[in-house]
């Protein structure tokens, strides 16, 4: 596995295509969500990518404070359907948290988590905050890692 962390302007055309392709495959097709994936946050974000055999298998978007939330955040967390249940998601989140600490300093992290993944994120040190809300027809809840 090859992990890369890049700012938007450093992404190659092929890397950007792979990111959008994986996000589309999972969020639009698998989860049947029609939503504006291009939300003008990518340009300010770091992009964490994991490639295996030249195929993107895991990705997350690291967003500095003040863009999505008051705190730094991790979003568009996605793993390839072919690699699930192999621990890649947990590793992706651990590397995402490390990336925030390394690039933006040790600080609180807020995420908008899909509700059914509360246990997963709790194991990584996140706690729920607020009420369940619908985003693109899927139950979400904000979670914070202090």
User: What are the low-pLDDT stretches, counting only 5+ consecutive residues below 50?
Assistant: none
- CATH homology group: Gcn5-related N-acetyltransferase (GNAT)
Backbone shape: globular
Mean pLDDT: 93
Number-wise, the strands total: 7
Tell me the Rg in angstroms: 14 Å
Biggest sheet details: 7 strands, mixed
- CATH topology tier name: Aminopeptidase
Describe the protein in words.
- This protein is α+β, with helices and mostly antiparallel strands and 146 residues long.
- It has one domain (2-106): Gcn5-related N-acetyltransferase (GNAT) (Aminopeptidase), CATH 3.40.630.30.
- It is built from 3 helices and 7 strands, in the order E-H-E-E-E-H-E-H-E-E.
- The longest helix has 18 residues, at 13-30.
Topology:
Layout: E1 2-7, H1 13-30, E2 46-52, E3 55-63, E4 72-79, H2 88-104, E5 109-114, H3 118-122, E6 127-135, E7 138-145
Parallel strand pairs: 4-5
Antiparallel strand pairs: 1-2, 2-3, 3-4, 5-7, 6-7
Brief summary:
The protein has a single domain, classed as Aminopeptidase, CATH 3.40.630.
What labels would you give this structure?
27% helix; seven-stranded mixed β-sheet; Aminopeptidase; 146 residues; 3 helices; alpha+beta
